[in-house]
C-alpha cells in the first residue's frame, strides 16, 4: 500500500470519504486492467516471475491474479471475484474481473455526478437480479446425450489457450473423462471434476495425451522384484507407517553381551514381521501406504508377492478409497478383510522414463485419469490449466442443462434489455441500472480490441443486430464479422455468466460502501489512535 494515505479517526475532514472511495475504485480498476488484454481467443499471455525466478506463462485470469503480488485490500476483493469464479465454474475468470472493474468505473461516473453510493448499490443489485432473469430467457438446453453440443462447449473453453491448436483432440479427451464420472442422483446430474485425476509428464507431444478409464497414481513399486501386475487385486490403504514404532518416552536399554544384542534385534524384526503378517492375513495383494515402509517390511511384502507403494499423498489416498471402495486404516490392528478395496488389475507402467501405477476396473467405476504430455514443463502446465477449464465447463453445463451463445452476444443482449428495464424505473436507481447495462458492453468491446478490430464499429453493429431480435449475434474475432455464435459453434455454460454477474456485483457493492480506510491498532488496548482510553476504575 505504498503511497496510500492512512486515515485515523481523529482530524476528520470532508474530503476523506471521497478520497477513500476513489482510491478503492482505482485499485479495483487496476486489477481488471491487468488481465483485460488476456480476454478472448485473441487475448495475449502474461509472464509471471516470482522471487525465485520461476516463471508462469498463461492467459488464465485466475492464475494471473493468484500469482500477482497484490497488497491493496480493495484490489484483493477483485482477485477474490476471480478466485470464486474459478472455484464455482472453472472458466470465465477474466470476464468476472473485467466486469467488476467496469462496474466500478461506471459507479465512479455516477458518484462524480452526485449520486450516493447507497443508491448505486441498490440499483446494481436490482440490475443483477434482472440480468440473471434475462439470461434464462436466452438459454439453450443440453443433455448428456448431446455429444456434439458438449464438444462445442469444450472447444470454446480451449480456444485461445496455448493448446488451442489441438482443441479437437483435447475436447474429445475432456468430454470422455467427464462422461465417465457423471453421477445420476435424485437431485439431478452431479459431476465432481476431482474424480478425474490429471498427471503431467514432460516428453512427447500434446497428441500423446491419453485418457485412462481408471486411476493413475504417480508412484512405483517399492521393490523391483514385487509383482509388476496383480489381477483381481485386493487393496489395502494404510495411513500408518509399516515400520518399527518408535517409543515416544525417553528410554535407556543396557546391553551387556552379544546374545542380548541379538535378542534385541530379533525382537525388533519380530514386531515388523507381525505387522506384515497381519497385512498378509487380511488377504491384501496390493498395499498403498501414506507413510514409510521399512526395508525389512518391504522384504516380507515382496516375499509374500504383494505389490506395495509408499509415500502416497493424502489426496491420492482419498481418490483410491473412493475408486476401490477401500477403508483407510489408521492402525494395523484395525485391518479387516471386508474393508479392503478391489480392482480388476493393478500394474506398473513406464511412461516416458518414469514409472506410474495404474488401477483398472475399479470397484467404483466413476473415475478417470488424464496423462498429459508436452515438450516442456511450461507447455504441460498450460495444457493442465486449459483442460481443467474444459472439464469444469462440461461438468457445470451437464449439471445445469443450460448453455448460452458466446462471443459477447449475451452481454449485448443484457445491455439492450437492461436499458429498457431502466426506463421503467423511477428515481436515481434508474441511472444505476443504466450504467450497469453499459458495463456489459466492456466484454464485446474488449474482444474487439484484443483482436485488433475497431470496438466502436463492432459495438454499433452488434447493437443493431440485437435490436432486430437476433439475440445470438456476437463477434467472430477471427473474421471480424458479426455472426450467429450458436451456428458458429461458440457456446458457454449459463453458470459462467450468472456467477460472473453475481460475484462482480457483490464485490462492487462492497467496495462502494467503504467510505473510510482506517489503520487498525492491534497493540495495547486495541483502540485506534485518537480515541480516549476506557476508564479502568469503573
CATH topology descriptor of the largest domain: GROEL, domain 1
**CATH homologous superfamily caption of the largest domain:** GroEL-like equatorial domain
For the biggest sheet, the summary is: 7 strands, mixed
Overall morphology: elongated
Kindly estimate the percentage of residues that lie in beta strands according to DSSP: 15-25%
User: What Rg do the Cα atoms give?
Assistant: 29 Å
Give the tally of structural domains: 2
CATH architecture type of the largest domain: Orthogonal Bundle
Helical residue percent band: 40-55%
Oligomer designation: single chain
Helix- and strand-based class? alpha+beta
Strands, count: 19
**Can you identify the CATH class of the largest domain?**
Mainly Alpha
Question: What layout of secondary structure does this protein have?
Answer:
Blueprint: H1 16-36, E1 46-49, E2 55-58, H2 61-67, H3 73-88, H4 93-112, H5 117-135, E3 140-141, H6 147-158, H7 167-179, E4 183-185, E5 188-190, E6 196-202, E7 210-212, E8 214-217, E9 229-238, H8 258-281, E10 286-289, H9 295-303, E11 307-309, H10 314-324, E12 328-329, E13 341-351, E14 354-362, E15 368-374, H11 377-400, E16 402-405, H12 409-422, H13 429-440, H14 442-450, H15 455-467, E17 473-476, E18 481-484, E19 491-493, H16 494-512
Parallel strand pairs: 6-15, 9-10, 9-12, 10-11
Antiparallel strand pairs: 1-2, 3-16, 4-5, 7-15, 8-14, 9-13, 13-14, 16-19, 17-18
Helix pairs in contact: 1-3, 1-4, 2-3, 3-4, 3-16, 4-13, 4-16, 5-12, 5-13, 5-16, 6-7, 6-11, 7-11, 8-9, 12-13, 12-15, 14-15
